[in-house]
């Protein structure tokens, strides 16, 4: 459950470089957990109510991990490079967006891919956790 606060009583630490870095670290660790198929880390980084919109579908946390695991099992290489995050913080919730430039495919047919992504991240017991993730392939430039 999120705690309520207003602009006037918003803790100053939310604007600190440390708070922004913690949110950035959470997003990068989220992708590392997926990349490594690390279910324990993924569960630690996401809320119990986490879900994702990706590839035109809704996925629970375990289902998203299964999609990545199954892709890896088929030889698909997923290479992600999360760009700078544009983050807005309000008390115990952050909204962040970024461009993810990488590649995907089965060698030797690995193609460059750009995704436009966003997440809602909540602060629980002093830790930032991903509550919602959205990914969509970007239009060709």
Q: How does this model look, in words?
A:
The model has no long low-confidence stretch (mean pLDDT 91). A hairpin with a 2-residue loop joins strand 5 and strand 6 (109-124). Helices cover 28% and strands 44% of the residues. The longest helix has 20 residues, at 17-36. Helix 1 (17-36) runs antiparallel to helix 2 (39-45). The chain is built from three helices and seven strands; from the N terminus they run ααββαβββββ. The protein is globular and about 50 Å long. It starts with 16 loop residues before the first helix and ends with a strand. With 141 residues, the chain is an alpha+beta fold.
List the topology elements.
Blueprint lengths: L16 H20 L2 H7 E9 L2 E4 H13 L3 E3 L6 E5 L2 E14 L2 E16 L2 E11 L4
Parallel strand pairs: 1-7
Antiparallel strand pairs: 1-2, 3-5, 4-5, 5-6, 6-7
Helix pairs in contact: 1-2
Tell me the span between the first and last alpha carbons. Answer: 41 Å
Low-confidence residue ranges = none
SSE pattern, N- to C-terminal: HHEEHEEEEE
Q: Indicate the mean pLDDT.
A: 91
Largest beta-sheet characterization:
7 strands, mixed
Number of strands: 7
């Amino acid at each position: 459950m999120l705690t309520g606060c207003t602009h006037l009583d918003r803790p100053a630490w939310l604007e600190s470089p440390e708070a922004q870095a913690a949110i950035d670290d959470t997003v990068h660790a989220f992708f590392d957990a997926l990349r490594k198929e690390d279910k324990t880390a993924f569960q630690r980084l996401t809320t119990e109510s986490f879900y994702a919109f990706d590839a035109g579908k809704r996925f629970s946390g375990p289902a998203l991990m299964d999609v990545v695991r199954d892709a890896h099992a088929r030889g698909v290489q997923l290479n992600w490079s999360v760009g700078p995050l544009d983050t807005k913080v309000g008390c115990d919730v952050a909204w962040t967006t970024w461009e993810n430039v990488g590649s995907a495919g089965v060698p030797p047919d690995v193609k460059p891919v750009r995704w436009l992504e966003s997440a809602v991240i909540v602060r629980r017991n002093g830790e930032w956790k991903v509550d919602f993730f959205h990914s969509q392939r970007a239009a060709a430039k």
